[in-house]
Design brief:
Bound molecules: 2-acetamido-2-deoxy-beta-D-glucopyranose
Strand content: under 5%
CATH architecture: Up-down Bundle
Largest sheet: none
Number of domains: 1
Number of helices: 7
Order of helices and strands: HHHHHHH
Distance between the termini: 57 Å
Shape: elongated
Radius of gyration: 23 Å
Length: 184
């Protein structure tokens, strides 16, 4: 049976619609989007998590281990920029107690960056429990900086509070993905 030209062209919009549909629901894309949602729904701050993971182009094709590596990288980048912030705030500090706190914070951020490096090694070795332990340690280091201000009853600059919280939320994604990799 031969279709008339008018007949065929009437199928064209339908075909376009079908192709768009296929593109939207391609198995690969759907799986990754679904994975990001599953990970982020378990994280401390789902909206920060989704935004952070989606900001990395690798996320679109990443599996769970890939998302774990991406969250390690995001945490490291943010820990480094927060470390730079601590350095610049420390230089401006005039009193002894503030200087002490910033020195502690600087050490804690240096530690957290090095421990995040261990996370990558553990992940590459398939040691997901180890990734979990190291990510918790990185989170504790960052939290210690926050706590130092509270302990000494000194107001923490809001930019630093926000940066600390962001790093902790990102470290939390490492914990979530490491737990999921362990089957939890
Ligand atoms: C944070 O830095 C201080 C000062 O160097 C250090 O004593 C402490 O062990 C570090 N880490 C933690 C998690 O407390």
């Amino acid at each position: 049976m031969e279709l008339s030209w008018s007949h065929r062209s009437s199928y064209f919009p339908l075909l376009l619609f079908f192709l768009a549909f296929l593109g939207y629901y391609s198995p690969c894309g759907e799986a990754t989007q679904d994975l990001i949602e599953r990970v982020c729904s378990k994280s401390k701050d789902p909206s920060v998590c989704t935004k952070a993971l989606e900001s990395d182009p690798r996320s679109h094709t990443a599996d769970l281990a890939g998302l774990c590596q991406i969250s390690i990288d995001l945490s490291t980048t943010n820990a480094k920029s927060t470390q730079a912030l601590v350095t610049s705030l420390g230089k401006k500090a005039t009193d002894k107690i503030s200087k002490e706190i910033y020195n502690t914070c600087l050490e804690n951020y240096t530690n957290s960056i090095s421990v995040l490096g261990d996370c990558t090694n553990r992940l590459q070795a398939g040691d997901y429990a180890g990734v979990n332990i190291k990510a918790s340690a990185a989170q504790t280091e960052v939290d210690t900086c926050d706590e130092s201000f509270k302990e000494r009853k000194l107001p923490e600059p809001p930019t630093l509070t926000n940066a600390c919280q962001k790093v902790q939320k990102l470290c939390n994604i490492i914990l979530v993905t490491a737990n999921m990799l362990q089957g939890n």
